[in-house]
Specification:
The chain is mostly helical. The protein contains five helices and two strands.
Length: 149
Amino acid sequence: MQGNRQDAWTNDEDILLAETVLRYIREGQTQLEAFKEVGGRLSRTSAACGFRWNATLRKQYEEAIQLAKRNRKKLPLSTTDTIENKTIEQPNIHDVIETLERLQSFYQQIDHREELRSVLDENKRIKQELQNYREFAQTVHQALEKLSH
């Protein structure tokens, strides 16, 4: 039986890490800074966050990363506000909608994977049950043959 690791990443933690990294990319900050923030919030090391991002999540968010980089690079001056010497970037509404649609699709894929996993587990259980019934039927058949001879 396979148990869950005590330090296993949850779906919510993965989402927090991904959203934070993407926000940092859009804001022109480093991923290392994002890993530090998430590490502090999740009581994990920034190295653990970086490893999780690079080993698991980065591939899933490649399109969102490219979109965040484009948004960072092509922002017109009219959509940039300066408050207390900090630049706050305002993303284009179409890019936000596109990102949200991609995230929605991503979450739907996760739901479908969980449903598939559940169906596969049930299929495995039913196959084992069928095998048990076949073995039982064979045993009964053999016993009946012995009784008839």
